[in-house]
Amino acid sequence: MNWQEAHFKEIHDNYRKAPYYPKYEKDIQRIYEQQYDVLIDINMELIEFLMKSFDIATEIIYSSEFGFNSKSTEKLVDLVSAVEGDVYLSGPMGKNYLEHQLFEEKNIHVTFQEFKHPAYQQQYNGFEPNMSAIDSLFNDGRIP
Question: Cβ distance 86 to 102 under 8 Å?
Fold first, then answer.
């Protein structure tokens, strides 16, 4: 069994009894039946599937399209500036490593995410937060 078959089997075995799994099973299976040369290819297939399933119509732009040679915080500032953004949303740990003054120099406000996981009905008793998006999709059918 190759990695794709093994991964799909894990998804199937864990979610086959979830209420919305049958609705999405063939789409997920089709993604795992394709051949991929690099990890980003399957990741993007899964992201596009999830965006469609959750009715998200946000444009995806790869940072490589901009051709920046900058690194770390400087690259983030360059990317936000390139799309004419004025806010950068960071994970909470960004407080520990971002160079805040680089954002300030470009008048970019940095907001640190304080995610509070919404609860939804899962197939097992209790609620286990911070699962993948497919957990919400297969159990709830939508974003709560």
Answer: no
